[in-house]
Amino acid sequence: MRRWLATLAALVVMVVSACSGAQATKTDETLPAATSAPTTSTTLPCGDPLLPAGASMSATAIPEGELEIRDAPDPTAPVVRTLPNPRLINGDPGAAVPLVFLVTDTPDDACDWVQVMLPVRPNGSTGFVRRSEVTLTPNPYRIEVRLEEYRLLVFQDDQPIMDTKIGRATDVTPTPPGQYYITELVKPPNPDGAYGPYAYGLSGFSEVLQTFNGGPGQLAIHGTNRPDLIGQKVSHGCIRIRNDEITRLSELLPLGVPVTVVA
Q1: How many structural domains is the chain composed of?
Q2: How does pLDDT run across 14-44, given as a tens digit for each residue?
Q3: What is the three-state SS of 173-187?
Q4: Which domain CATH number covers 242?
Q5: H or E stretch covering 243
Q6: What is the three-class DSSP state of 193?
Q7: 165 and 110 in one domain?
Q8: Do 175 and 159 form a contact (C-beta atoms < 8 A)?
């Protein structure tokens, strides 16, 4: 699976209103060096590969229906919540996407389980799912959003492949710093509209807005019809980049890619 695309009759899952436009795939700034060299791949106790620097693991739910999330890697542990697979964005049957998680731990002493980050409030929530109910996939990509620098960087194999300016949130409706991941790729019905041709939904939510435009206040990275506002505080929580850049990423990034937002 490279990507899963959902088309909505009305894009209301995002936290903002508009974002970016066209032109440029990087700023005039020099791309930063990788923080570390790739690690030689070996096998961990449960048979998982030791991931190279900058890589992560995603978990895609296999069975359809409600997936049980437990608070410990134990079949007798309490079920803290259930999540539907596939997910219906805003309850729309025409906008179904697979339930994907970012793996945060693979316990050596509980090989039947994996710990995953959940796309729910509060931001950063985690739980355990059975390995038999998910497919684990290594991922070489990651995104870093530096709010104070109005900057978004994309890495592959810990090497930068995109460095661009962003439109960020206002001080009234800020983007909360933290660790998130890509949960869905949405194609708005109007590619020349406020969200541009594509939008990546994230696992995080606004800490100020409980709802927005009929959606749950979900964070996103998306395009824009106002590229002139790139480099400014203009959104309700989402990150805006130029339309050619979000289009490029839509052809490259799978679901489950980690997104780190720093102040």
Answers
A1: 2
A2: 333 223 333 333 333 334 444 444 445 477 8
A3: CCCCCEEEEEEEEEE
A4: 2.40.440.10
A5: helix 243-250
A6: coil
A7: no
A8: no
